[in-house]
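Quick entry between incubations.
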Amino acid sequence: MAVLLSSEQLSTTIRALAKTLSERHPGFEDVVFVGIQQGGAVLGEEIVAELQRLNPGKTIPYGQLDITFYRDDIRKNIIPPDKMNIHFGVENKTVILIDDVLFTGRTIKAALDVLFDYGRPAKVELCVLVDRNEHRQFPIQADYVGTTVQTSRTDKVKLVNREVILIPA
Amino acid sequence: MQLSTRHLLGIKNLSKEDISLILSTAEQFKEVLQRPVKKVPSLRDVTIVNLFYENSTRTRFSFELAEKRLSADTINFAASSSSAAKGETLLDTVNNILSMKVDMVVMRHSASGAPHFLSQHIPAAIINAGDGINEHPTQALLDAFSIREKTGGLEGRKVAIIGDIMHSRVAQSNIYLLNKMGAEVTVCGPPTLIPKYIREALGVNVSYNLRETLEWCDVANVLRIQLERQNQVLFSSLREYSIAYGINRQLLDSLNKEIVIMHPGPINRGVELDSDVADSKQSIILQQVENGVAVRMAVLYLLANRNN
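Done. Structure below.
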Protein backbone atom coordinates (compact mmCIF):
# COMPACT_ATOMS: atom_id res chain seq x y z
CA MET A 1 0.00 0.00 0.00
CA ALA A 2 1.28 3.45 -0.88
CA VAL A 3 -0.01 6.88 0.09
CA LEU A 4 -0.56 9.00 -3.03
CA LEU A 5 -1.87 12.05 -1.15
CA SER A 6 -1.33 12.59 2.55
CA SER A 7 -3.93 14.34 4.66
CA GLU A 8 -2.02 17.64 4.33
CA GLN A 9 -1.57 17.27 0.58
CA LEU A 10 -5.29 16.53 0.36
CA SER A 11 -6.13 19.80 2.12
CA THR A 12 -3.81 21.73 -0.22
CA THR A 13 -5.34 20.04 -3.28
CA ILE A 14 -8.88 20.76 -2.10
CA ARG A 15 -8.01 24.43 -1.55
CA ALA A 16 -6.51 24.62 -5.05
CA LEU A 17 -9.60 22.97 -6.61
CA ALA A 18 -11.91 25.34 -4.72
CA LYS A 19 -9.89 28.34 -5.88
CA THR A 20 -10.10 27.27 -9.54
CA LEU A 21 -13.84 26.57 -9.20
CA SER A 22 -14.41 30.03 -7.69
CA GLU A 23 -12.45 31.71 -10.48
CA ARG A 24 -14.24 29.76 -13.22
CA HIS A 25 -17.70 30.47 -11.72
CA PRO A 26 -17.68 33.94 -10.17
CA GLY A 27 -20.80 34.38 -8.03
CA PHE A 28 -21.88 30.75 -8.59
CA GLU A 29 -24.99 31.89 -10.49
CA ASP A 30 -27.09 28.78 -11.34
CA VAL A 31 -24.29 26.44 -10.24
CA VAL A 32 -25.00 23.33 -8.15
CA PHE A 33 -22.59 20.74 -6.77
CA VAL A 34 -23.21 17.00 -6.67
CA GLY A 35 -20.87 14.46 -5.02
CA ILE A 36 -20.91 10.84 -6.21
CA GLN A 37 -21.30 8.25 -3.41
CA GLN A 38 -19.25 7.31 -1.53
CA GLY A 39 -15.78 8.89 -1.96
CA GLY A 40 -17.02 11.76 -4.10
CA ALA A 41 -19.69 12.64 -1.56
CA VAL A 42 -17.11 12.92 1.23
CA LEU A 43 -14.80 14.97 -0.98
CA GLY A 44 -17.66 17.14 -2.22
CA GLU A 45 -18.55 18.11 1.31
CA GLU A 46 -15.00 19.38 1.91
CA ILE A 47 -14.83 21.22 -1.39
CA VAL A 48 -18.17 22.93 -0.78
CA ALA A 49 -17.08 23.89 2.76
CA GLU A 50 -13.95 25.47 1.29
CA LEU A 51 -16.01 27.26 -1.40
CA GLN A 52 -18.31 28.51 1.34
CA ARG A 53 -15.25 29.91 3.17
CA LEU A 54 -14.01 31.64 0.00
CA ASN A 55 -17.46 33.03 -0.80
CA PRO A 56 -19.09 33.99 2.49
CA GLY A 57 -22.81 34.69 2.35
CA LYS A 58 -23.34 32.67 -0.87
CA THR A 59 -25.68 29.69 -0.81
CA ILE A 60 -23.97 26.84 -2.60
CA PRO A 61 -26.43 23.97 -3.27
CA TYR A 62 -24.84 20.59 -2.62
CA GLY A 63 -26.30 17.09 -3.00
CA GLN A 64 -25.21 13.48 -3.16
CA LEU A 65 -25.84 11.06 -5.97
CA ASP A 66 -25.76 7.24 -5.91
CA ILE A 67 -25.25 5.23 -9.10
CA THR A 68 -26.05 1.73 -7.77
CA PHE A 69 -29.28 1.25 -9.74
CA TYR A 70 -27.57 2.47 -12.93
CA ARG A 71 -24.42 0.35 -12.80
CA ASP A 72 -23.52 -1.59 -15.95
CA ASP A 73 -22.08 -4.46 -13.87
CA ILE A 74 -25.23 -4.89 -11.78
CA ARG A 75 -25.54 -8.62 -12.52
CA LYS A 76 -21.96 -9.38 -11.53
CA ASN A 77 -21.76 -7.73 -8.19
CA ILE A 78 -24.57 -6.61 -5.98
CA ILE A 79 -23.88 -3.59 -3.83
CA PRO A 80 -26.41 -2.15 -1.38
CA PRO A 81 -27.47 1.30 -2.58
CA ASP A 82 -26.38 4.51 -0.85
CA LYS A 83 -28.44 7.58 -0.07
CA MET A 84 -29.45 9.91 -2.89
CA ASN A 85 -30.06 13.48 -1.87
CA ILE A 86 -30.66 15.99 -4.62
CA HIS A 87 -33.02 18.44 -2.99
CA PHE A 88 -32.73 21.12 -5.68
CA GLY A 89 -33.70 21.23 -9.35
CA VAL A 90 -30.95 20.64 -11.91
CA GLU A 91 -33.00 21.90 -14.87
CA ASN A 92 -30.97 24.56 -16.75
CA LYS A 93 -28.30 24.60 -14.05
CA THR A 94 -24.56 24.09 -14.34
CA VAL A 95 -23.97 20.89 -12.43
CA ILE A 96 -20.48 20.23 -11.11
CA LEU A 97 -20.07 16.50 -10.49
CA ILE A 98 -17.47 15.63 -7.89
CA ASP A 99 -15.75 12.26 -7.56
CA ASP A 100 -12.66 11.11 -5.73
CA VAL A 101 -11.04 8.97 -8.44
CA LEU A 102 -11.56 9.07 -12.21
CA PHE A 103 -10.60 5.67 -13.59
CA THR A 104 -12.46 3.92 -16.45
CA GLY A 105 -15.16 6.59 -16.75
CA ARG A 106 -17.98 4.10 -16.15
CA THR A 107 -19.05 5.70 -12.88
CA ILE A 108 -19.30 9.10 -14.54
CA LYS A 109 -21.30 7.65 -17.42
CA ALA A 110 -23.75 6.15 -14.91
CA ALA A 111 -23.81 9.38 -12.89
CA LEU A 112 -24.80 11.33 -16.02
CA ASP A 113 -27.66 8.85 -16.56
CA VAL A 114 -28.86 9.43 -12.99
CA LEU A 115 -28.56 13.18 -13.32
CA PHE A 116 -30.72 13.32 -16.43
CA ASP A 117 -33.52 11.56 -14.53
CA TYR A 118 -33.64 14.65 -12.32
CA GLY A 119 -33.89 17.15 -15.17
CA ARG A 120 -31.94 18.63 -18.07
CA PRO A 121 -28.91 20.55 -16.88
CA ALA A 122 -27.55 23.38 -19.07
CA LYS A 123 -24.02 22.11 -18.52
CA VAL A 124 -22.23 19.40 -16.60
CA GLU A 125 -18.64 19.72 -15.45
CA LEU A 126 -16.51 17.14 -13.71
CA CYS A 127 -14.19 17.75 -10.78
CA VAL A 128 -11.98 14.90 -9.53
CA LEU A 129 -9.28 14.59 -6.92
CA VAL A 130 -7.24 11.90 -8.67
CA ASP A 131 -7.13 11.16 -12.38
CA ARG A 132 -5.86 7.73 -13.53
CA ASN A 133 -6.06 8.98 -17.08
CA GLU A 134 -4.34 6.14 -18.96
CA HIS A 135 -7.14 3.67 -18.08
CA ARG A 136 -10.16 5.42 -19.53
CA GLN A 137 -12.73 3.20 -21.34
CA PHE A 138 -15.09 6.03 -22.33
CA PRO A 139 -14.57 9.44 -23.96
CA ILE A 140 -14.85 11.22 -20.60
CA GLN A 141 -12.41 13.68 -19.05
CA ALA A 142 -12.43 15.94 -16.03
CA ASP A 143 -12.61 19.76 -16.12
CA TYR A 144 -10.88 20.09 -12.74
CA VAL A 145 -8.18 17.65 -11.66
CA GLY A 146 -6.44 17.60 -8.28
CA THR A 147 -3.61 15.33 -9.34
CA THR A 148 -2.81 12.83 -12.09
CA VAL A 149 -1.25 9.49 -11.17
CA GLN A 150 0.39 6.67 -13.11
CA THR A 151 -1.05 3.34 -12.01
CA SER A 152 -1.38 -0.16 -13.34
CA ARG A 153 -4.81 -1.37 -14.49
CA THR A 154 -5.29 -3.75 -11.53
CA ASP A 155 -4.31 -1.27 -8.78
CA LYS A 156 -7.00 0.13 -6.53
CA VAL A 157 -6.96 3.84 -5.66
CA LYS A 158 -9.21 5.05 -2.86
CA LEU A 159 -9.92 8.03 -0.63
CA VAL A 160 -9.90 6.65 2.91
CA ASN A 161 -9.76 8.69 6.13
CA ARG A 162 -8.57 11.85 4.35
CA GLU A 163 -5.76 10.03 2.52
CA VAL A 164 -5.58 8.81 -1.05
CA ILE A 165 -4.05 5.36 -1.01
CA LEU A 166 -2.95 2.94 -3.71
CA ILE A 167 -3.46 -0.78 -3.10
CA PRO A 168 -1.53 -2.90 -5.61
CA ALA A 169 -3.32 -6.00 -6.91
CA MET B 1 -24.63 -8.34 0.79
CA GLN B 2 -27.31 -10.41 -0.81
CA LEU B 3 -30.43 -12.35 0.10
CA SER B 4 -30.02 -15.85 1.50
CA THR B 5 -32.74 -17.15 -0.82
CA ARG B 6 -33.29 -17.47 -4.58
CA HIS B 7 -37.07 -17.14 -4.26
CA LEU B 8 -39.41 -15.17 -2.04
CA LEU B 9 -41.86 -17.88 -1.05
CA GLY B 10 -42.66 -16.61 2.41
CA ILE B 11 -41.35 -14.68 5.38
CA LYS B 12 -40.96 -17.97 7.25
CA ASN B 13 -37.67 -18.84 5.53
CA LEU B 14 -36.16 -15.33 5.50
CA SER B 15 -33.50 -14.29 7.99
CA LYS B 16 -33.57 -11.07 9.99
CA GLU B 17 -30.71 -9.81 7.79
CA ASP B 18 -32.73 -10.56 4.63
CA ILE B 19 -35.64 -8.53 5.95
CA SER B 20 -33.41 -5.61 6.95
CA LEU B 21 -31.71 -5.65 3.54
CA ILE B 22 -35.07 -5.56 1.72
CA LEU B 23 -36.37 -2.73 3.90
CA SER B 24 -33.24 -0.58 3.58
CA THR B 25 -33.10 -1.13 -0.19
CA ALA B 26 -36.78 -0.16 -0.37
CA GLU B 27 -35.95 3.17 1.26
CA GLN B 28 -33.71 4.02 -1.68
CA PHE B 29 -36.42 2.96 -4.14
CA LYS B 30 -38.90 5.18 -2.34
CA GLU B 31 -36.57 8.07 -3.17
CA VAL B 32 -36.57 6.96 -6.83
CA LEU B 33 -40.38 7.23 -6.81
CA GLN B 34 -40.18 10.91 -5.78
CA ARG B 35 -37.98 11.88 -8.76
CA PRO B 36 -39.16 13.63 -11.92
CA VAL B 37 -38.30 10.42 -13.83
CA LYS B 38 -39.52 7.62 -11.55
CA LYS B 39 -37.59 4.88 -13.25
CA VAL B 40 -34.18 3.21 -13.07
CA PRO B 41 -32.58 0.91 -15.66
CA SER B 42 -31.59 -1.85 -13.20
CA LEU B 43 -33.71 -4.71 -14.62
CA ARG B 44 -33.82 -3.74 -18.29
CA ASP B 45 -32.51 -7.20 -19.26
CA VAL B 46 -35.04 -9.10 -17.12
CA THR B 47 -38.43 -10.45 -18.17
CA ILE B 48 -41.08 -11.07 -15.53
CA VAL B 49 -44.42 -12.85 -15.78
CA ASN B 50 -47.22 -11.93 -13.41
CA LEU B 51 -49.19 -15.11 -12.95
CA PHE B 52 -52.46 -14.38 -11.18
CA TYR B 53 -54.68 -17.38 -10.56
CA GLU B 54 -56.72 -15.38 -8.09
CA ASN B 55 -58.21 -11.89 -8.24
CA SER B 56 -56.15 -8.92 -7.20
CA THR B 57 -56.13 -5.17 -7.76
CA ARG B 58 -53.54 -3.64 -5.47
CA THR B 59 -50.95 -6.40 -5.52
CA ARG B 60 -51.04 -6.94 -9.27
CA PHE B 61 -50.86 -3.22 -10.09
CA SER B 62 -48.20 -2.73 -7.47
CA PHE B 63 -46.00 -5.51 -8.86
CA GLU B 64 -46.54 -4.38 -12.41
CA LEU B 65 -45.65 -0.80 -11.56
CA ALA B 66 -42.59 -1.94 -9.58
CA GLU B 67 -41.43 -4.00 -12.58
CA LYS B 68 -41.92 -1.09 -14.98
CA ARG B 69 -40.15 1.35 -12.66
CA LEU B 70 -37.17 -1.05 -12.77
CA SER B 71 -37.33 -1.19 -16.60
CA ALA B 72 -38.13 -4.92 -16.68
CA ASP B 73 -40.24 -6.38 -19.50
CA THR B 74 -43.51 -7.78 -18.18
CA ILE B 75 -46.25 -10.08 -19.30
CA ASN B 76 -49.51 -10.58 -17.47
CA PHE B 77 -51.48 -13.73 -17.03
CA ALA B 78 -54.94 -13.92 -15.54
CA ALA B 79 -56.29 -17.44 -15.06
CA SER B 80 -59.84 -16.48 -15.97
CA SER B 81 -58.85 -15.33 -19.48
CA SER B 82 -56.25 -18.00 -20.29
CA SER B 83 -55.86 -21.67 -21.20
CA ALA B 84 -55.95 -22.54 -17.50
CA ALA B 85 -59.69 -22.23 -18.00
CA LYS B 86 -59.37 -25.01 -20.62
CA GLY B 87 -57.80 -27.36 -18.09
CA GLU B 88 -54.07 -26.84 -18.56
CA THR B 89 -52.09 -27.71 -15.42
CA LEU B 90 -50.12 -25.11 -13.49
CA LEU B 91 -46.79 -26.71 -14.37
CA ASP B 92 -47.65 -26.91 -18.08
CA THR B 93 -48.75 -23.29 -18.15
CA VAL B 94 -45.57 -22.11 -16.45
CA ASN B 95 -43.24 -24.27 -18.54
CA ASN B 96 -44.85 -22.92 -21.68
CA ILE B 97 -44.35 -19.38 -20.49
CA LEU B 98 -40.76 -20.07 -19.43
CA SER B 99 -39.89 -21.50 -22.84
CA MET B 100 -40.40 -17.94 -24.04
CA LYS B 101 -37.38 -16.97 -21.87
CA VAL B 102 -38.84 -15.51 -18.71
CA ASP B 103 -36.54 -14.87 -15.75
CA MET B 104 -38.91 -14.33 -12.86
CA VAL B 105 -42.42 -15.39 -11.92
CA VAL B 106 -44.67 -13.37 -9.62
CA MET B 107 -47.46 -15.66 -8.60
CA ARG B 108 -50.76 -15.57 -6.79
CA HIS B 109 -52.71 -18.76 -6.31
CA SER B 110 -55.65 -19.89 -4.19
CA ALA B 111 -53.83 -23.12 -3.25
CA SER B 112 -51.45 -22.79 -0.31
CA GLY B 113 -47.98 -23.97 -1.33
CA ALA B 114 -48.45 -23.47 -5.10
CA PRO B 115 -45.35 -21.23 -5.42
CA HIS B 116 -43.31 -23.68 -3.33
CA PHE B 117 -44.33 -26.47 -5.70
CA LEU B 118 -43.34 -24.40 -8.73
CA SER B 119 -39.98 -23.44 -7.23
CA GLN B 120 -39.01 -27.15 -7.12
CA HIS B 121 -39.79 -27.68 -10.79
CA ILE B 122 -38.68 -24.61 -12.72
CA PRO B 123 -35.44 -22.62 -12.92
CA ALA B 124 -36.95 -19.09 -12.72
CA ALA B 125 -37.02 -17.05 -9.50
CA ILE B 126 -40.45 -17.17 -7.87
CA ILE B 127 -42.07 -14.43 -5.85
CA ASN B 128 -45.15 -15.36 -3.88
CA ALA B 129 -47.84 -12.70 -4.26
CA GLY B 130 -50.19 -14.60 -1.97
CA ASP B 131 -50.88 -18.33 -1.77
CA GLY B 132 -54.21 -19.46 -0.30
CA ILE B 133 -54.24 -19.07 3.45
CA ASN B 134 -50.47 -19.49 3.78
CA GLU B 135 -48.36 -16.39 3.15
CA HIS B 136 -48.32 -12.98 1.47
CA PRO B 137 -44.70 -11.97 2.05
CA THR B 138 -44.56 -8.68 0.15
CA GLN B 139 -47.61 -7.43 2.06
CA ALA B 140 -45.87 -8.17 5.38
CA LEU B 141 -42.72 -6.42 4.12
CA LEU B 142 -44.62 -3.31 3.07
CA ASP B 143 -46.53 -3.32 6.36
CA ALA B 144 -43.22 -3.50 8.24
CA PHE B 145 -41.77 -0.73 6.07
CA SER B 146 -44.81 1.45 6.81
CA ILE B 147 -44.68 0.77 10.56
CA ARG B 148 -40.98 1.58 10.60
CA GLU B 149 -41.53 4.77 8.62
CA LYS B 150 -44.40 5.92 10.83
CA THR B 151 -43.13 4.91 14.27
CA GLY B 152 -39.35 4.82 13.78
CA GLY B 153 -38.72 1.10 14.16
CA LEU B 154 -40.01 -2.43 14.66
CA GLU B 155 -38.08 -3.60 17.73
CA GLY B 156 -40.36 -3.51 20.79
CA ARG B 157 -43.33 -2.17 18.81
CA LYS B 158 -46.72 -3.53 19.92
CA VAL B 159 -48.75 -4.59 16.91
CA ALA B 160 -52.30 -5.90 17.01
CA ILE B 161 -53.63 -7.93 14.09
CA ILE B 162 -57.39 -7.79 14.19
CA GLY B 163 -60.08 -9.81 12.46
CA ASP B 164 -60.11 -12.98 10.39
CA ILE B 165 -56.78 -14.49 11.46
CA MET B 166 -57.84 -18.02 10.46
CA HIS B 167 -58.09 -17.33 6.73
CA SER B 168 -55.46 -14.62 6.49
CA ARG B 169 -52.11 -15.08 4.73
CA VAL B 170 -51.44 -11.44 5.56
CA ALA B 171 -51.71 -12.23 9.29
CA GLN B 172 -49.40 -15.23 9.05
CA SER B 173 -46.69 -13.39 7.08
CA ASN B 174 -46.97 -10.39 9.41
CA ILE B 175 -46.60 -12.58 12.50
CA TYR B 176 -43.47 -14.29 11.14
CA LEU B 177 -41.93 -10.97 10.20
CA LEU B 178 -42.78 -9.03 13.36
CA ASN B 179 -41.54 -11.87 15.57
CA LYS B 180 -38.24 -12.03 13.69
CA MET B 181 -37.75 -8.27 13.97
CA GLY B 182 -38.47 -8.13 17.70
CA ALA B 183 -41.97 -6.63 17.71
CA GLU B 184 -44.71 -7.93 20.00
CA VAL B 185 -47.87 -9.28 18.38
CA THR B 186 -51.41 -9.77 19.65
CA VAL B 187 -54.04 -11.33 17.43
CA CYS B 188 -57.61 -10.31 18.18
CA GLY B 189 -60.96 -11.47 16.79
CA PRO B 190 -63.86 -13.79 17.49
CA PRO B 191 -62.69 -17.22 18.79
CA THR B 192 -64.06 -18.89 15.65
CA LEU B 193 -61.68 -16.84 13.46
CA ILE B 194 -58.51 -17.46 15.50
CA PRO B 195 -56.73 -20.81 15.13
CA LYS B 196 -56.85 -22.69 18.43
CA TYR B 197 -53.13 -23.23 19.07
CA ILE B 198 -51.79 -20.08 17.44
CA ARG B 199 -50.27 -18.88 20.73
CA GLU B 200 -48.12 -22.00 21.00
CA ALA B 201 -47.46 -22.37 17.27
CA LEU B 202 -46.50 -18.81 16.38
CA GLY B 203 -45.68 -17.15 19.70
CA VAL B 204 -48.33 -14.43 19.74
CA ASN B 205 -50.74 -13.12 22.39
CA VAL B 206 -54.42 -13.90 21.80
CA SER B 207 -57.26 -11.62 22.80
CA TYR B 208 -60.99 -11.74 22.13
CA ASN B 209 -61.52 -8.23 23.44
CA LEU B 210 -61.10 -5.43 20.91
CA ARG B 211 -60.99 -2.53 23.37
CA GLU B 212 -58.31 -4.15 25.54
CA THR B 213 -56.26 -4.94 22.46
CA LEU B 214 -56.47 -1.39 21.12
CA GLU B 215 -55.47 0.00 24.52
CA TRP B 216 -52.41 -2.27 24.49
CA CYS B 217 -51.13 -1.69 20.95
CA ASP B 218 -49.17 1.04 19.11
CA VAL B 219 -50.34 -0.14 15.71
CA ALA B 220 -53.57 -1.93 14.72
CA ASN B 221 -53.45 -3.87 11.47
CA VAL B 222 -57.10 -4.53 10.65
CA LEU B 223 -57.96 -7.39 8.30
CA ARG B 224 -60.83 -8.01 5.96
CA ILE B 225 -63.37 -10.73 6.65
CA GLN B 226 -62.62 -13.18 3.88
CA LEU B 227 -66.09 -14.43 3.07
CA GLU B 228 -64.79 -16.15 -0.07
CA ARG B 229 -62.64 -18.53 2.01
CA GLN B 230 -65.28 -19.44 4.60
CA ASN B 231 -67.36 -22.50 3.92
CA GLN B 232 -69.27 -22.51 7.18
CA VAL B 233 -70.89 -19.95 9.40
CA LEU B 234 -68.20 -18.61 11.76
CA PHE B 235 -70.15 -15.64 13.08
CA SER B 236 -73.82 -14.89 12.91
CA SER B 237 -73.87 -11.76 10.78
CA LEU B 238 -71.62 -9.02 9.45
CA ARG B 239 -73.62 -6.60 11.58
CA GLU B 240 -72.83 -8.57 14.72
CA TYR B 241 -69.17 -8.81 13.74
CA SER B 242 -69.05 -5.10 13.19
CA ILE B 243 -70.57 -4.38 16.61
CA ALA B 244 -68.03 -6.58 18.42
CA TYR B 245 -64.91 -6.12 16.28
CA GLY B 246 -65.48 -3.15 13.99
CA ILE B 247 -63.40 -0.04 14.71
CA ASN B 248 -65.24 3.25 14.75
CA ARG B 249 -64.33 6.83 15.58
CA GLN B 250 -65.98 6.76 18.97
CA LEU B 251 -63.96 3.74 20.07
CA LEU B 252 -60.68 5.25 18.88
CA ASP B 253 -61.39 8.59 20.57
CA SER B 254 -62.12 6.84 23.87
CA LEU B 255 -58.61 5.28 23.99
CA ASN B 256 -55.95 6.90 26.16
CA LYS B 257 -53.54 7.29 23.20
CA GLU B 258 -53.42 7.71 19.44
CA ILE B 259 -52.74 4.44 17.64
CA VAL B 260 -51.81 3.87 13.99
CA ILE B 261 -54.46 2.16 11.83
CA MET B 262 -53.44 -0.12 8.96
CA HIS B 263 -55.41 -2.27 6.54
CA PRO B 264 -54.09 -4.39 3.65
CA GLY B 265 -57.20 -3.67 1.55
CA PRO B 266 -59.72 -4.11 0.15
CA ILE B 267 -61.69 -2.54 3.01
CA ASN B 268 -65.22 -3.62 3.81
CA ARG B 269 -66.30 -0.18 4.97
CA GLY B 270 -68.67 -0.32 7.91
CA VAL B 271 -67.67 -3.91 8.75
CA GLU B 272 -64.12 -4.00 10.12
CA LEU B 273 -63.44 -0.26 9.71
CA ASP B 274 -65.75 2.74 9.62
CA SER B 275 -65.10 5.33 6.94
CA ASP B 276 -64.23 8.05 9.47
CA VAL B 277 -61.46 5.76 10.77
CA ALA B 278 -60.21 4.50 7.40
CA ASP B 279 -59.94 8.05 6.03
CA SER B 280 -58.60 9.67 9.20
CA LYS B 281 -55.13 11.05 9.92
CA GLN B 282 -54.36 8.04 12.10
CA SER B 283 -54.78 5.73 9.14
CA ILE B 284 -51.74 4.97 6.95
CA ILE B 285 -53.67 2.77 4.53
CA LEU B 286 -52.74 4.78 1.43
CA GLN B 287 -49.11 5.10 2.53
CA GLN B 288 -49.07 1.29 2.71
CA VAL B 289 -50.10 1.15 -0.93
CA GLU B 290 -47.48 3.74 -1.91
CA ASN B 291 -44.75 1.89 0.00
CA GLY B 292 -45.81 -1.36 -1.63
CA VAL B 293 -44.29 -0.31 -4.94
CA ALA B 294 -40.92 0.58 -3.34
CA VAL B 295 -40.82 -2.65 -1.33
CA ARG B 296 -41.65 -4.79 -4.37
CA MET B 297 -38.97 -2.98 -6.36
CA ALA B 298 -36.48 -3.90 -3.63
CA VAL B 299 -37.55 -7.57 -3.68
CA LEU B 300 -37.36 -7.81 -7.49
CA TYR B 301 -34.05 -5.97 -7.61
CA LEU B 302 -32.41 -8.14 -4.96
CA LEU B 303 -33.74 -11.43 -6.37
CA ALA B 304 -32.90 -10.60 -9.99
CA ASN B 305 -29.32 -10.00 -8.98
CA ARG B 306 -29.24 -13.01 -6.68
CA ASN B 307 -29.86 -15.40 -9.52
CA ASN B 308 -26.97 -14.58 -11.74
